[in-house]
């Protein structure tokens, strides 16, 4: 499923109407009918409804809904917030049609009394005030009405295309916005459904097809199994471990050994043939006692470029197929030279996580080195802010923009973690991930994700499929692991959920 911006929606409308030749009224009738059907499937018996109607085409959908609800025996109050003489042609057509079935109240500048008493009495509120054509800053009287609607706690509120007050592309709220219980959006989801705070205003939502035709492929998709499930096939009976890659995980400073353990455990759960963990000298003994399948080495702060026990030497002599740098890595003198040297040598995909991201944030010129390896970085919003030298709040307000810009300017695949993780590719494409659970908001779950991405990269899955598959299944494992209190879910339970979740999507 693609995700469309308002500009793409406008282009899609224009193309469908002008080039394909489907009249705008046909699209509007289908849009309004789809919303009516959503209302009727929830309330099969007639109710009292208020349809709040704006002066644009979102309002046009509102006239269609008001008419169909009347025809289904509902008691409908249609409130127009604006001047009827200014309605665009398609909306006017359905305004005229509706008036054969019911009356229209026009909100006057004198006061809200009539609308207020109707709102107190209603069971369903339909928000057809503003859709994708909304400009910033709600004007009077829409601002007042939005406030009144949000005070009606007994009525069920359904938003047409998008709740009024929410910006479709940024998810920002224009001072205030309607808190919908449910939103029916047309043709494609919008960014607002995956960004804060807009996502909190849309409630449950569905996308309905209304017959529009896409002239160009949008640059944003929603993550789903069909993008990667071909890479998740069952093993041949002739399998041996050599066929499933060798992942190297570099990290595990004092007090943070758990991070490499979790990444390694996740990598094995996702089918990696061999996993090697490498930690600073002195930590390897404790790690050896704590793992079963993983091989363990150490590296020291000053010999990593030279002798046979150095990371450099081993990177050349062992057959790694992917490398993770960062879980529990810590910060240390010479880190910049250390990371630069590693990046210059590795040819297989590298995932930069945690402190590897922090090192990169302090030494951005590392990316100017001659690096052959494809790079994937997996920042949480705080790490993304450090990379961009901005605030976490700024990142959170422009998640989609910052992820895209950073991927395009650095050539890395960026996995910006969060409630809806965004994966941005250097060519400008983006994928937003719908799966996940607040149970994953816990130390360790990022290490699991990194291990999962590393696992599929090590097995030779393409970068795009590996990243999308790992992010999606990690979210699903979070959902699956909640069998009692969500706050009690442990990383072990998330790891244990990987098997059933992978099974579900394997063919
Ligand atoms: N996408 C499709 O295939 C279809 C979508 N449809 C619906 O059409 C809307 C988009 O319609 P559009 O007319 O472009 O825009 P809106 O109705 O959302 O808004 C325009 C009107 O709202 C006024 N406005 C804009 N911003 C504000 C504000 N901040 N405060 C108050 N009023 C505002 C604007 O007035 P102006 O004076 O600024 O012009 C307009 O009156 C889409 O969301 C779908 O619901 C169709 O059904 C066809 C298929
Ligand atoms: K709306």
From TrEMBL:
EC nos: 4.2.1.136, 5.1.99.6
Keyword Amino-acid biosynthesis carried by entry: no
UniProt xrefs under SUPFAM superfamilies: Ribokinase-like (SSF53613), YjeF N-terminal domain-like (SSF64153)
Reaction catalyzed: (6S)-NADPHX + ADP = AMP + phosphate + NADPH + H(+); (6R)-NADHX = (6S)-NADHX; (6R)-NADPHX = (6S)-NADPHX; (6S)-NADHX + ADP = AMP + phosphate + NADH + H(+)
Keyword entries, A-Z: ATP-binding, Isomerase, Lyase, Metal-binding, Multifunctional enzyme, NAD, NADP, Nucleotide-binding, Potassium
Cross-referenced InterPro entries: Carbohydrate_kinase_pred_CS, CARKD, Nnr, Ribokinase-like, YjeF_N_dom, YjeF_N_dom_sf
List of residues binding K(+): 58, 127, 164
Entry GO MF terms: ADP-dependent NAD(P)H-hydrate dehydratase activity; ATP binding; metal ion binding; NAD(P)HX epimerase activity
Free-text cofactor note: Binds 1 potassium ion per subunit.
Start and end residues of each YjeF C-terminal domain: 224-505
Domain YjeF N-terminal: 9-218
Obligatory cofactor(s): Mg(2+); K(+)
Residues the record lists as binding AMP: 417-421, 446
GO BP: metabolite repair; nicotinamide nucleotide metabolic process
Binding-site list for (6S)-NADPHX: 57-61, 131-137, 161, 259, 328, 380, 447
Quaternary structure annotation from Swiss-Prot or TrEMBL: Homotetramer.
Family designation: Belongs to the NnrD/CARKD family.
PANTHER family (UniProt xref): ATP-DEPENDENT (S)-NAD(P)H-HYDRATE DEHYDRATASE, ATP-DEPENDENT (S)-NAD(P)H-HYDRATE DEHYDRATASE FAMILY MEMBER
Functional note: Catalyzes the epimerization of the S- and R-forms of NAD(P)HX, a damaged form of NAD(P)H that is a result of enzymatic or heat-dependent hydration. This is a prerequisite for the S-specific NAD(P)H-hydrate dehydratase to allow the repair of both epimers of NAD(P)HX. Catalyzes the dehydration of the S-form of NAD(P)HX at the expense of ADP, which is converted to AMP. Together with NAD(P)HX epimerase, which catalyzes the epimerization of the S- and R-forms, the enzyme allows the repair of both epimers of NAD(P)HX, a damaged form of NAD(P)H that is a result of enzymatic or heat-dependent hydration.
Protein name: Bifunctional NAD(P)H-hydrate repair enzyme
Organism the protein comes from: Seinonella peptonophila
């Amino acid at each position: 499923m693609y995700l469309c911006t308002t500009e793409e929606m406008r282009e899609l409308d224009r193309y469908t109407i002008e080039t394909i030749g489907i009249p705008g009224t046909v699209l509007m009738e289908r849009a309004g009918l789809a919303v009516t059907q959503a209302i009727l499937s929830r309330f099969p018996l007639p109710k009292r409804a208020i349809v709040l109607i704006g002066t644009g085409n979102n309002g046009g959908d509102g006239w269609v809904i008001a008419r169909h609800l009347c025809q289904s025996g509902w008691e409908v109050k249609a409130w127009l917030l604006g001047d009827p003489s200014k309605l665009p042609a398609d909306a006017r057509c359905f305004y005229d049609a509706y008036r054969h079935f019911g009356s229209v109240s026009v909100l006057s500048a004198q006061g809200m009394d009539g609308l207020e008493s109707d709102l107190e009495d209603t069971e369903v509120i339909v928000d057809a005030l503003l859709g994708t054509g909304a400009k910033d800053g709600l004007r009077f009287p829409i601002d007042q009405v939005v406030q009144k609607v949000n005070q009606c706690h007994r009525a069920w509120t359904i938003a047409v295309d998008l709740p009024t007050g929410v910006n479709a592309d940024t998810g920002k709220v224009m001072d205030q916005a309607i808190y919908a219980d449910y939103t029916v959006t047309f043709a494609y989801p919008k960014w607002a459904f995956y960004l804060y705070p807009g996502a909190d205003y849309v409630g449950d939502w569905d996308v309905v097809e209304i017959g529009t035709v896409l002239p160009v492929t949008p640059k944003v998709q929603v993550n789903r199994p069909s993008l990667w499930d071909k890479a998740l096939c069952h093993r041949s009976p002739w399998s041996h471990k050599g066929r499933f890659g060798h992942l190297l995980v570099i990290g595990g400073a004092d007090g943070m050994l758990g991070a490499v353990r979790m990444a390694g455990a996740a990598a094995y759960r996702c089918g990696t043939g061999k996993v090697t963990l490498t930690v600073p000298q002195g930590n390897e003994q404790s790690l050896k006692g704590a793992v079963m399948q993983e091989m363990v080495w150490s590296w020291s702060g000053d010999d990593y470029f030279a002798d046979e026990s150095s990371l450099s030497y081993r990177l050349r002599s062992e057959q790694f197929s992917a490398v993770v740098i960062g879980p529990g890595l810590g910060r240390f003198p010479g880190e910049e030279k250390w990371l630069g040297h590693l990046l210059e040598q590795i040819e297989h995909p590298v995932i930069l996580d945690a402190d590897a991201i922090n090192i990169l944030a302090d030494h951005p010129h590392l990316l100017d080195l001659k690096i052959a390896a494809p790079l994937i970085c997996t920042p949480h919003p705080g790490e993304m802010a450090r990379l961009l030298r901005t605030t976490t709040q700024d990142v959170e307000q422009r998640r989609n923009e910052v992820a895209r810009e950073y991927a395009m300017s650095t050539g890395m695949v960026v996995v910006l973690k969060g409630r809806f993780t965004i994966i941005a590719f250097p060519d400008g494409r983006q994928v937003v991930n719908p799966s996940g659970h607040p149970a994953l908001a816990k130390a360790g779950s990022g290490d699991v994700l990194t291990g999962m991405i590393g696992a599929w990269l090590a097995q030779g899955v393409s970068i795009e499929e590996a990243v999308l598959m790992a992010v999606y299944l990690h979210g699903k494992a979070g959902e699956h692991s909640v069998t009692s209190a969500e706050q009690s879910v442990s990383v072990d339970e998330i790891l244990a959920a990987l098997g059933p979740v992978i099974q579900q999507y394997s063919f």
